[in-house]
Amino acid sequence: MCLFDTHCHLDLMVQKGIDIDTALQQASKAGVERILVPGIDASNWNVIQQYSHKYPMVDWAMGIHPMFVSEHSIEHIKQMKTRLERGEDCIAIGECGLDFYHGRDNQALQVSVLIEQLKLAQHYHLPVLLHVRKAHQELIQVLKQYPLPRGGVLHGFTGSYEQGMQYIEQGLFLGIGGSITYERAKKTRNAVARLPLDKLLLETDAPDMPLNGYQGLPNQPKFIKNVLSSLILLRNESEQTITLKLSESVVSLFE
Question: What is the pTM of this model?
């Protein structure tokens, strides 16, 4: 069984006191073959790129998270463009998106920074890793205006079937994580049971989004197997069909 954790913040795990070598060894034993580490702003790009060079199972993405948007973001966009122009080895743009959870004071700036990153994804033919909170309709509208030739992942999907299909119609996969391990997450579990299997990917969002039974502990990529187990229980397909389709989807998006 070969699994791909499509969203894992290894650099933030270090801040939680987790040893990366141990975490990756445990992940490998759990069947994890690859891990994608998103960028959050220019401050962590070099660190996560170094992880990808040190550990063969690690890939990285370059992006500006909406929660880290600031007056420096336009300069960071210029840095992204320069690095991509010289042939950077990241495999995606992100984590980028819109987040109005704490209000809309910087909505215009968030939208502007997102659009610039989508333009880079278009120009350099890269998939995107998208983050969204309290901004679904706004994000859908931006995606309609800036369609992505390589698509991407709507990270941390916790919505309804109808919402999931809206993103799929924009050419995105849905990142499925620890939320489906909670029985109380009925809306998301029902949606994941019905959504097209070939549009689902697995993620942990480690060290965040702890799984059921591990509340209060830092999440880790080894727990992707628990997400898979919950997915298998929710779906009508066989375990073999599900794992094969997940692998095919990852290859189609990131290779």
Answer: 0.97
